[in-house]
Amino acid sequence: RSHMGSHILRFSRNMSEDVRNPITEPHPCGFCGHDNGGRAGEDKCALSMKITSRAVNWESRCPYKHTFQYGSASKGSDSRPCRNVPVICTLCHHPGRDTDTHPAIWRYNMEAHLNETHPEYAHPGKQKGLALPRSVYEAMVLTPLEEKKAGVP
Question: SS3 of 126, please?
Fold first, then answer.
């Protein structure tokens, strides 16, 4: 997740990399880097989440998925600053209850998701547009340590 997160951030900042299998699409899987199809839930690496008062449960169909502690990964740390975890876009319409399972997006793919699905909103990579709701901004904003560790401006 951390390793792939660095590649995803570099791709999202238009930084070229000399690697065997570069990321080429704007919605890569956080585990393997393959295209996530742009719409949560529509591909082999589909990602979903269920948030309850007790836990955050996520599921991925990626054959390279591995378990991680969501709470720790979502906060990051000095030694592991990558916070590329599944998040739910609250701007999208999700039928059912808040505690149901919903399609999710990798945090580092949120700017691409907003550009394609909610182009009316401004975000850290796009200054013009409607202000993002605070919860959406907090679900996607990167820390300076994340950017530094990934080597992105």
Answer: strand
DSSP element (H, E) containing 4: helix 2-12
Beta-bridged to residue 88, according to DSSP, are: none
Instruction: Express each pLDDT in 78-107 by its tens digit.
Output: 888 889 999 999 999 877 777 788 999 999
**Measured CA distances, 37 to 25, 40, 120 (Å):** 8, 7, 21
For range 109-134, the mean pLDDT: 94
CA atoms within 13 A on the CB side of 152: 23
Closest CA to 130 of 107, 114, 112: 114
Per the DSSP assignment, residues forming a β-bridge with 49 are 58, 102
Cα three-residue angle 41-86-118, rounded to 5 degrees: 65
Give this prediction's pTM.
Answer: 0.86
The string of DSSP codes covering 58-123 is EEE--TT-----HHHHHH--SS------EE--TTS---S-TTS-EE-EEGGGHHHHHHHH-TTB-B
Q: Are 30 and 4 in contact (CB under 8 A)?
A: yes
Exposed/middle/buried for residue 152 (C-beta within 10 Å: 0-12, 13-18, 19+): middle
